[in-house]
Amino acid sequence: MNTKLITRLLLGLIFCHLPAWANHPEVERDDVSMVNIPAGNFIRGSSTGMGRSDEMPREKIYIDAFSIDKFEVTNKRYLAFIAATGHKEPYNVYEEGSLFKVTDIHDLPVVQVTWHDAADYCQWVGKRLPTEAEWEKAARGTDGRMFPWGDEKPSSLHANYDRDWADKATLKPVGSLPQGASPYGVHDMSGNAREWVQDWYDKDYYAQAPKRNPRGPDKSLLKVIRGGSWRSFDSDIRAAARGKGGFALKTHGTGFRCARDMSTEHKIRLQGPE
């Protein structure tokens, strides 16, 4: 058989199993600001008596430079993804019917998304989910602080947490609590919506994880969720607190943000000491 014909048949078999949008040229499909996190060490985890057993040991971890969304993915951004791809719409937590018809929610973080929903969106915009270690470094910086804003006890000025459901008033527009931003200027990493990250969850992973660019265990039954939600207590919105859930989990308080590998030029510019 003709070699060119064989090649075309093989390519057809490959691409017929990809989502329709994967065949399109990669373009920048959202305009959210991203924050560059420089390479270098940060303090991951909690000391004995300061956190839960799955946050230990507390130690220095090295992370390569990367970029992360300044804000959680909003309903507006996520609905654009649905409109363009035909991806299944999230459950409407505000009223009956389509999320497209609900007003005054465009700047609220999207919720009721599974891990796969989050991963698909990030791929669609040419990004990826952050690793758990990347997420924690972006949330707490390099000094081991308890919360993104420091060690000060949280308040309603810092985070949206410890609340009952109040329809459209439950979640806050992204970036509306600037006093709670991380040292790098990343917003809403405590409370509002919990955030899916890339890694599988293992309660004992920290004790055996590599000290350089850890990416979680090879497999597990659960995925890591970080940051706490509008419903969480203050202990669950600490920067080191680890959550978990099955990758098909969808809740009123679980959303995500995306990350991206940094270009070689930016890596060189922001390279930190090891």
Protein topology:
Elements: H1 3-15, E1 34-37, E2 40-44, E3 59-63, E4 66-69, H2 75-85, H3 115-124, H4 132-140, E5 194-200, H5 205-208, E6 223-226, E7 242-245, E8 254-255, E9 259-261, H6 264-270
Parallel strand pairs: 5-8
Antiparallel strand pairs: 1-4, 2-3, 4-9, 5-6, 6-7
Signal peptide: 1-22
Protein name: Formylglycine-generating enzyme family protein
Domain Sulfatase-modifying factor enzyme-like: 33-260
Detailed description of the structure:
- The protein has a 4-stranded mixed sheet. Strands 1-4-9 form a 3-stranded antiparallel sheet, with helices on both faces.
- The chain is built from 6 helices and 9 strands, in the order αββββαααβαββββα.
- It has helices at residues 3-15, 75-85, 115-124, 132-140, 205-208, 264-270, and strands at residues 34-37, 40-44, 59-63, 66-69, 194-200, 223-226, 242-245, 254-255, 259-261.
- It starts with a helix and ends with a helix.
- The chain is globular and about 50 Å long.
- Residues 3-27 and 264-274 have low confidence and may be disordered.
- It has 274 residues and is α+β, with helices and mostly antiparallel strands.
- It has one domain (29-270): paralog of FGE (formylglycine-generating enzyme) (Alpha-Beta Complex).
Instruction: Say how many strands there are.
Output: 9
Global Rg: 19 Å
CATH homology superfamily name: paralog of FGE (formylglycine-generating enzyme)
Our count of domains comes out at 1
Q: Give me the side-by-side strand order of the main sheet.
A: 7-6-5-8
- Runs in which pLDDT lies below 50 for 5 or more consecutive residues are 3-27, 264-274
Average pLDDT reading: 89
CATH architectural grouping: Alpha-Beta Complex
Q: Treating each run of at least 4 consecutive H or I residues as one helix, how many helices? A: 6
Global morphology: globular
Helix content: 10-25%
Distance between the termini: 55 Å
CATH domain class name:
Alpha Beta
Strand content: 5-15%
Largest sheet: 4 strands, mixed
* SSE class: alpha+beta
User: What's the CATH topology label?
Assistant: paralog of FGE (formylglycine-generating enzyme)
SSE topology string: HEEEEHHHEHEEEEH
Signal peptide: 1-22
Protein name: Formylglycine-generating enzyme family protein
Pfam families: FGE-sulfatase
Domain Sulfatase-modifying factor enzyme-like: 33-260
